[in-house]
Amino acid sequence: MSSEASTPPSEIRIMMATTYLALSIMGLLPNILLAIVLIKNRSKLLRTCFFVITTQILICDIGELLTQVIVAFPLSLYGSNVYEGSGTIYIYYITNIVDTISYNGVLLFTFVMAVNRLTVFMYPSLHIVLFSPLYVWRTVVVVWCIIIFEVAGANILHCWKRFSYDEFYFFIKCYSSSWQLSIIWLEVMRYQSYALPIIMFMLYMCLFVFIRFKSSSSNKTTRSSTIQKKTEMNLLIQAVILTVFLELQTLSFTFLPKVGAGYNKYYSSLAQNVISILNNSINPYVYFFINMQIRREMITVVCGRRFATRRHGKTVTKVYDLTNF
Predict the structure, then answer these.
(1) Phi, psi dihedral angles at 267 (to 5 degrees)
(2) What's the predicted TM-score (pTM) here?
(3) Fewest beta carbons less than 10 Å away: which of 19, 306, 312, 322?
(4) What are phi and psi of 61, to 5 degrees?
């Protein structure tokens, strides 16, 4: 970066900080609304694998968004690490660790969601082993153990996430003498983040083809065919949105900090964090539009049950309601 851009002017700092704060709050609100819905209906929803996995993704999304509020916003605004001190510095360290855990959590649990939707139709015996009410929490614990193992390994190797308050982006820096091992560990995590969204998209496409083939080979009423088409479209929309944003977040974290010079560097950093925030904000909107039960409960929380009943009083039974598995 040029010396001209090494110390950002106050207007750049204000723009960066307010953008991060505003978008993070806009992302937190629908996630909090979704959390309220899940908590209010936990006895019913948490018996369903879809909502168990959704809860894990929700926790991780909130973790990443809070990192923007706690770290990115104040450091961007003040141009220094406001947490430096004997005790408060641990707020900075712990929040950055939570951010790394949350990112890996979103990635892996979104992948688990794709596997869940594939196995329920194509490999029912495997679905029972991984996602039946008796075993779904075991699967969740295994995934969390993988996440903690990956992040703990990086931190043990002294590879820590930091936030550049002069260039406005998160990065991981290794301070270990075992430099080669640190690089290998981070490369494995990085290529995992590249590969999983692509694999997820392929899984969704396989499921789409399977459902389309199965529906075309069976006799269906006109109403059932309409429901089937809506389900297929929901799968495609969800696959594209979730996988594209995950891949964009990974690519932006890797490449955008290297793009541009001078003031353009700031806009590259802005784009990186905006993509990350949008990725953590998109799930409640996806669930709202594709899941009637969540949509009705969200409207109930915001507008009251009478309004929700009036607008969505009719119950529609979906032929392929993937949220029931």
Answers:
(1) -70, -30
(2) 0.84
(3) 306
(4) -60, -45
Amino acid sitting at position 146: I
Domain boundaries 10-303, CATH class: mainly alpha
Cα 39 to Cα 52: distance, rounded to the nearest angstrom: 11
> What are the structure tokens assigned to 281, written together?
């904000």
Tokens describing residue 201: 């998209």
User: What 8-state DSSP symbol labels residue 47?
Assistant: T
Integer Cα distance of 236 and 205 in angstroms:
8
For the stretch 113-144, pLDDT in tens is 889 888 888 888 998 999 988 889 999 999 99
Helices 305-312, 292-303: inter-axial angle, 10-degree rounding: 140
In total, the chain counts a number of residues equal to 325
Phi, psi of 171 (to 5 degrees): -150, 165
Name the 3-class secondary structure at 312.
helix
Query: Phi-psi region for residue 42, left (φ > 0), alpha (ψ -120 to 50) or beta?
Result: alpha
The 3-state DSSP class for residue 80 equals coil
Q: Please report how the helices 89-122 and 179-216 are oriented relative to each other, as an axis angle in degrees rounded to 10.
A: 30
Nearest to 235 by CA among 218, 214, 210: 210
**How far apart, in whole angstroms, are the C-alpha atoms of residue 167 and residue 153?**
27
